[in-house]
Design goal:
Order of helices and strands: HEHEHEEHEHHHEE
Helix content: 25-40%
Number of helices: 7
Distance between the termini: 72 Å
Structural class: alpha/beta
Strand order of the largest sheet: 3-2-1-4-5-7-6
Shape: globular
CATH topology: Rossmann fold
CATH superfamily: Vaccinia Virus protein VP39
Largest sheet: 7 strands, mixed
CATH architecture: 3-Layer(aba) Sandwich
Strand content: 15-25%
Number of domains: 1
Length: 257
């Protein structure tokens, strides 16, 4: 009796699913952040330099670099930047963007939760909209502190994006006068027609989607030994009812000497 071969499909891990989503989003996301560079790149760069206390020649890690916005802006100010991202497509896009901007940065495909760097290698670490998308965010904070030089700072910019999926009290209501991005914005910055509902489904399995932030983010480096921790909110957050979830925030902390 002849047996028909059976083909097994090995399901992707959550990390691989997230990587696949950001691979698909790389073109559109790059379009959006490069537009941001044109609109307010100088302000972003100066803000990062001031927040982190760095100058030309400082060695900086851009954690979850995406299309390379922070890496490029800091490199233009003379920083020596290494950008890492788990999405290979994002890494390639960042390399292309840096080349077009005429700056030199190193971009590497790497897991933010398991960095392949030695201890105390960087004068600063910066990260935007990465921590929320991790399976082991506490390990990421631990890794950030490990690769930082003593006395140096990290800046984490993130958001309380998906708590509304689990708690109706945290449903965001737009303030008076709020105007959402129109169809033109989405058509320009989603040329590959990626379904954004994919990441919302993945977010249901991510631990920080259930956490009340930024309280979690302040407490985590504190538990890891940091005492110099500062929490800030973007200018547009002034209208927020603090009994509701914070859409976005930044936390700056210094590694102890």
């Amino acid at each position: 009796m002849l047996c028909t071969p059976t083909h097994f499909v090995i399901p992707m891990t959550l990390l691989e699913e997230i990587e696949n989503y950001w691979d698909m989003r790389s073109n559109g996301f790059s379009s959006a952040v490069m537009e941001e560079m044109t609109d307010r790149g100088e302000k972003i760069a100066l803000g990062l330099m001031d927040d982190l206390g760095i100058s030309s020649g400082s060695r900086v890690l851009d954690l979850g670099c995406g299309p390379g916005l922070f890496s490029i802006l800091l490199a233009k100010k003379g920083a020596i930047v290494t950008g890492v991202d788990y999405s290979a497509a994002m890494v390639n896009t960042a390399r292309n963007n840096a080349a077009e901007e005429g700056v030199s940065c190193e971009f590497i495909k790497m897991d933010a939760q398991d960095l392949a760097f030695g201890d105390c290698e960087f004068d600063a670490v910066v990260s935007r909209s990465v921590i929320w998308a991790l399976e082991r965010p506490r390990e990421c904070y631990r890794e950030v502190l490990r690769v930082l030089k003593p006395g140096c700072k990290a800046e984490i910019i993130d958001g309380n994006y998906y708590l509304h999926l689990f708690n109706e009290d945290y449903r965001w209501e737009p303030p008076a006068g709020y105007r959402p991005a129109g169809k033109d914005y989405h058509s320009r910055h989603n040329p590959d027609n990626v379904d954004f509902r994919i990441i919302e489904e993945l977010a249901k399995s991510l631990p920080l989607s259930r956490e009340e932030r930024p309280a979690w983010d302040v407490g985590t480096p504190a538990k890891l030994g940091c005492r110099d921790i500062h929490l800030m909110f973007p200018e547009h957050a002034g209208y927020l009812d603090r009994s509701k979830a914070i859409p976005s925030f930044k936390i700056i902390f210094r590694k102890e000497q």
